[in-house]
Specification:
This protein has 84 residues and is α+β, with helices and mostly antiparallel strands. The chain has a domain at 47-80. It is built from three helices and two strands. The chain has a two-stranded antiparallel ribbon. The longest helix is centred in the C-terminal third of the chain and has 19 residues, at 62-80. The protein is elongated and about 55 Å long. The relative contact order is 0.07.
Length: 84
């Protein structure tokens, strides 16, 4: 199989992933895939692939993310107490 596969969207919006591609990427019946909009166009990822991509994108930003999460937790706690 080449690095690409041509698929056609059916009249009900369904796309059939070719058998060779399903085998190559381990897609089994029930595998969830996410269509991600990127600057280069749509990208089809499994949940695990998307999680890995998000983790990679966040790498090196630990301090900023920790600060953001702390702010969000404080805001949620204040909201629970009815404070604005």
């Amino acid at each position: 199989m080449s690095d690409t596969a041509i698929m056609t969207v059916g009249d009900k919006g369904r796309v059939v992933i070719p058998q060779e591609a399903r085998e190559r990427y381990g897609f089994q019946p029930g595998t969830k895939v996410i269509l991600v909009d990127t600057a280069a166009g749509p990208l089809l990822l499994t949940e695990d692939q998307l999680l890995a991509r998000v983790r990679a994108d966040c790498a090196g930003h630990g301090e900023m993310l920790t600060e953001l999460f702390a702010e969000r937790r404080a805001a949620a706690k204040a909201e629970d107490k009815g404070v604005s």
